[in-house]
Each structure stands twice: as structure tokens, then as C-alpha cells.
Amino acid sequence: MADWYTRKELHDDRVAFFNTDFSSRREYAYLLKVVNPGKFVISPAQAGPMYQSNVQTTTDPGILEVQP
């Protein structure tokens, strides 16, 4: 995957991508290492411009089940 985004931040509970080019559709992906089995709720992704809080979009939440 090419680094076409401006900046990426990795946190304990989320990943944040920052971008200045919105001329086409983008798909964001990152690897996740799960160390505990169980059923986890994946928070919805959120997207929007930094200085226009009235313009936002989100995805549906997901569920990830990790088997031992």
C-alpha cells in the first residue's frame, strides 16, 4: 500500500489517517494483531474535514470473533 496520506497516527485504541487530497475515493486499511480470544465490537470509522464539524460520515460498527 502506498503512503498517499499526509500523516498516520497509531494509538492503543484507534488509528488516525490525515489526508489533504480528496479528489477520488480512498480505502484505508491497516493490520491488527489480536492476542486474546473473544468477541470484540469494532467501533465505527469516522471521517470528516478538520475545520467543518457539520460535515461528517461514519460506517456501521462491526463484530470480530477470535477463536482460540
Give the termini distance in whole angstroms: 30 Å
Total strand count, please?
6
SSE string, helices as H and strands as E:
EEEEEE
Q: What is the topology, as strand order, of the major beta sheet? A: 1-2
Radius of gyration from the alpha-carbon trace, in angstroms: 14 Å
Low-pLDDT stretches are none
Provide the β-strand percentage band: 25-35%
How would the global form be characterised?
Answer: elongated
Largest sheet: 2 strands, antiparallel
Q: What average pLDDT do the residues reach? A: 84
> By helix and strand content, what is the structural category?
mainly beta
Give the proportion of residues in helices: under 10%
Helix tally? 0
Please provide a written account of the structure.
Helices cover 0% and strands 32% of the residues. The chain contains no helices and 6 strands. It is mainly beta and 68 residues long. The strands form 3 sheets. It has a two-stranded antiparallel sheet. A two-stranded antiparallel sheet has the order 3-6. It has a two-stranded antiparallel ribbon with strand order 4-5. The mean pLDDT is 84.
